[in-house]
């Protein structure tokens, strides 16, 4: 039986653009969707492209404070003093003010809500919003290129619909905004695997961040050492994520699929290749089918190698969701589009060559991850009745 899959994409996403030189450029989303189309993945039975919609203020306020939403609106028309806006994380730096900021941000939230609605209502098995995954925005503050936290809004919407939600974040940056939104909730499990906050923004995401109150044990973090490579990453992922997911038994999974851990990404310090992302996507896809009837909402996220890693990796994600094999050679039609958008020397093959990892780095990374996984087993597994060998008797 074929997968029923939707990709959510429309012109409304193009407005989410901070500046010509800002690292988060919507061209990466356009190129990813174009590559998906160039591989003819949308022509498979049961697969379709769906338009996003603008989220209403009331939907955004499932997560964000009304005063903050008003601040975003006033910022784009210059109606608030700069010092007031800085209190909301808006202004010079990561989150500069840009035209129609509220409208552009609400399109992305609406796109993730469309994906959530379609999967919740069983119109499709999986839905992918490549413009989504803006996981850093806090209740009353912009952060890390993120104005509104569409991932948290989608999780809150699903939770209010009576569903038990597992959120899995594979971005190189800690999924802090989603974690803090549900830090005291037992209904949304957040799992983030990311470069350690000792060396990378936002400086959080340590094993000791377990949740609080009724949410104690429902915040899970797997911090990775700089230089982490494919085999070490996937081993840590498989030792921690599947047993916790099975014990939590969600009704639906929301995954944030930032691909800024790629070795060529300019903002992070990991050594991951397309092979790692293909393996992780297969694992999450399989777990969704095993645990919650296949219900999976996939979002985009970080990724700043705009013309190379991001389009290829998100196309691998979509090919996995649709169960479709794709050729190694990238379509010539896409290469022309990539070059016309400013890509210059675009890649010609879907997969990276294997990286050569120095032996001393392998030893250092594996040692650090062994300590991390041991800490998770000791601190987190007991909340799920798990031991290193599996469920307790």
Write up what this structure looks like:
- This protein is α/β, with parallel strands linked by helices and 393 residues long.
- The chain has a single domain, classed as Histone deacetylase domain (Arginase, Chain A), CATH 3.40.800.20.
- Helices cover 39% and strands 11% of the residues.
- It is built from twelve helices and ten strands.
- The chain has helices at 27-38, 57-60, 66-76, 82-87, 101-120, 150-160, 176-181, 230-248, 274-292, 309-322, 332-340, 359-379; strands at 5-8, 47-50, 126-129, 165-169, 188-195, 219-224, 252-256, 296-299, 386-387, 390-391.
- The protein has an eight-stranded parallel beta sheet, with helices on both faces. A two-stranded antiparallel ribbon has the order 9-10.
- Helix 1 (27-38) packs antiparallel against helix 11 (332-340), helix 5 packs parallel to helix 6 and helix 9 (274-292) runs parallel beside helix 10 (309-322).
- It is globular, with a radius of gyration of 20 Å.
- The protein starts with a strand and ends with a strand.
- The model has no long low-confidence stretch (mean pLDDT 96).
């Amino acid at each position: 039986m074929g997968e029923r899959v939707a990709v959510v994409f429309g012109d409304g996403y193009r407005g989410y653009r901070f500046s010509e030189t800002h690292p988060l450029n919507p061209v990466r989303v356009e190129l990813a969707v174009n590559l998906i189309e160039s591989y003819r993945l949308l022509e498979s039975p049961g697969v379709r492209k769906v338009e996003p919609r603008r989220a209403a203020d009331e939907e955004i306020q499932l997560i964000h404070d009304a005063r903050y939403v008003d601040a975003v609106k006033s910022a784009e028309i210059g109606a608030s003093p700069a010092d007031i806006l800085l209190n909301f994380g808006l202004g010079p730096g990561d989150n500069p003010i840009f035209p129609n900021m509220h409208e552009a941000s609400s399109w992305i939230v609406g796109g993730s809500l469309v994906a959530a609605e379609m999967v919740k209502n069983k119109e499709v098995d999986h839905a992918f919003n490549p413009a989504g995954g803006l996981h850093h925005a806090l209740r009353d503050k912009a952060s890390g290129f993120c104005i509104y936290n569409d991932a948290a809004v989608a999780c809150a919407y699903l939770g209010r619909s009576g569903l038990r939600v597992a959120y899995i974040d594979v971005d190189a940056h800690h999924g802090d905004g989603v974690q803090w939104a549900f830090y005291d909730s037992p209904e949304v499990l957040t799992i983030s695997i990311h470069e350690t906050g000792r060396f990378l923004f936002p400086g959080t995401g340590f094993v000791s961040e377990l949740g609080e109150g009724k949410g104690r044990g429902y915040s899970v973090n797997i911090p990775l050492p700089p230089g982490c490579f494919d085999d070490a990453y996937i081993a840590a992922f498989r030792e921690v994520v599947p047993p916790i997911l099975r014990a939590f038994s969600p009704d639906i999974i929301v995954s944030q699929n930032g691909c800024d851990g790629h070795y060529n990404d300019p903002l992070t310090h990991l050594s991951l290749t397309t092979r790692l992302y293909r393996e992780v996507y297969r694992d999450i896809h399989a777990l969704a089918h095993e645990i919650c009837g296949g219900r999976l909402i996939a979002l985009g996220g970080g990724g700043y190698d705009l013309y190379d890693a991001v389009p290829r990796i998100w196309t691998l994600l979509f090919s996995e969701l649709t169960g479709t094999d794709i050729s190694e050679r990238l379509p010539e039609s896409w290469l022309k589009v990539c070059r016309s958008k400013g890509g210059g020397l675009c890649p010609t093959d879907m997969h990276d060559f294997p990286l050569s990892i120095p032996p001393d780095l392998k030893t250092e990374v594996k040692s650090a991850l062994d300590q991390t996984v041991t800490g998770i087993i000791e601190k987190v597994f007991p909340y799920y009745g798990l031991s290193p060998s599996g469920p307790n008797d």
